[in-house]
Amino acid sequence: MTELTEPLFKKAVVELLYQLADDDFILAYRGSEWLGLAPHIEEDVAFSSINQDTMGHAAMYYGLLEQLGEGDMDTLSHARGISERKNAVLLELPNGSGHYLKEPRYDWAFTVVRHFYYSHAKKVKLESLKHSSYEPLAHAAVKISMELYYHLMHWTVWFNQLMNAGGEAKRKMLEAISRVEQDFLDVCSLGPLSAEMASLKLIDGDDALMQAFHENMKPVFDALFIPYKGEFQQHSGKGRYGEHTQELHQALATLTEVYRTDPAAAW
Amino acid sequence: MIRLETDEEKHINFMERIYAGEKIEADDWMPDEYRNVLIKLISMHGISEIMGALPEKEWVPKAPTLKRKLGIMAKVQDEMGHGQLLLRVTEDLIKPLGKTREDIMEDLFNGKLKFHNVFHMEAPTWGDAGLIGWLIDGAAIITQTNMLNASYGPYARALKRICAEEVFHAQHGEAIILALAEGTDEQKRMVQQAVERWWEPLLMFFGPGDAKAVGTSKQDITAKYRIRSKSNEELRQDFFTKYVPRILSIGLTIPDPSMHYDQEQEKWIYQQPDWEKFKEIVRNKGPKSQERLRLRKLSYENNEWVREALARPNDAR
Ligand SMILES: [Fe+2]
Ligand SMILES: [Fe+2]
């Protein structure tokens, strides 16, 4: 069995954990900006619950990094600079125009599509991680999968409902799909150590993950009688390589505003 | 021979039922006055839960650690859940009047439906986020446990669930406040300033002591129908008894030098809040009233297409 004492193994585990943690951390934030603004109260309750779960998943991954001696989880989540962040760029993009406290004009179609695609990709990764050679990660994957099951169900209902509604809803959804696909490559990518992660059996490689993703998505589109192209691009920078947009800069400024006033204090 | 009951007889039966401790259910006959006071009370409570998430909204992402982020996320989710639960109770009450949730929202936007004075106020620091949980939720526990035995069954049952969750909110708030109160000078200052900002709104939260202060009061009607038992003033006194010693014990100062317990009168003596200001605040003229209403209104308009899509039967393809 591969050991943590092997430097490459540890390096690859750490790299992977940062991606997983940062993805959930930033998307939970984007989700939480919707608080009080969702299409109806019932959705506000359900969406808050999903965001809370997702932030909890981020905390689990940061916790695993803490155990590996990377620093404490609050420092990892709050003190790392923008170029150290490994989240997919798609997940840092804003929910729409405006600020979460001032004149938010958020796009529910974009939110549904982003969360629906992301939840599918997350599922594909978790299925693979359940067999990870790094056991703590395999355990975490089992726990997280149980909650993700409900998230996926939730976004599937929204996705189908709005696609089936036709008219303006469908037009907005199709627009959101093409927007999300423009930056979706990142979400399925494992970055510079992808090959090593696969050969060390931490997780399946990029190609296998992508193929599994297509296999999950195609039936959804078939059922809606919409051709599934599955051609993804990466227009706004490669998050796995530390490339990010100004949007992440602003998001981190908000997320760390209180923390930064005194990182050494007990809060 | 079958004779239909007159309204007067129905009314007498109704009062006998509630005085015998029976619960009234949504489909039971009830006097208009009872229905109306319930609608007013429960819709205001429900919409306050929802508007109450907005002062905390700012602090959800800004919470300083992962643990605090998770804690405040859980709390605001509960509050939204309370709002949902109470709106459903209200919906059943307004159904016979031909009204729906759309009307509740409409009333909120046009100012007919008011929300609690505390949720019109600013919450400019993390200290405020903690204080809201500790003392506002603490005050809410006091007013809501006072109605746990309400004669209207659906409300009493909703309150039971709500109060159980409110206890966690107060603990969450207290944990934030204790960390700050034991923290750096800057953190201590943050929490002291929050106490000063929230003291008057907290006193107002329980409502005026008698009808004279603001002109009208539904206190008498709710007592008559066994919806609540204690008066506004009694609840405010309970709050003092529970929280004044706690506030002082963690080194905080109450911004009212006259505040003390009078042994002879067996009550707390305190400076009355400005009830004229209270009237203005609940008329949506508080410091944050318009901004928060704007957020709700904007989301309502912005998601109109979603509500339309949901209302439309699927016309696939
Ligand atoms: Fe509540
Ligand atoms: Fe609460």
From TrEMBL, chain A:
Domain of life (superkingdom): Bacteria
Biological process, per Gene Ontology: phenylacetate catabolic process
Annotated Gene Ontology cellular component terms: cytosol
InterPro entries named among the record's database cross-references: Aromatic_CoA_ox/epox, Ferritin-like, Ferritin-like_SF, PaaA_PaaC, PaaC
UniProt cross-references to SUPFAM superfamilies, sorted A to Z: Ferritin-like
Pfam families: PaaA_PaaC (PF05138)
Protein name as catalogued: Phenylacetate-CoA oxygenase subunit PaaI
UniProtKB/TrEMBL annotation, chain B:
Name of the protein in question: Phenylacetate-CoA oxygenase subunit PaaA
GO annotation (BP), single: phenylacetate catabolic process
Pfam families named among the record's database cross-references: PaaA_PaaC
Annotated NCBIfam families: PA_CoA_Oxy1
Domain of life: Bacteria
GO molecular function (one): phenylacetyl-CoA 1,2-epoxidase activity
GO cellular component: cytosol
Species: Jeotgalibacillus campisalis
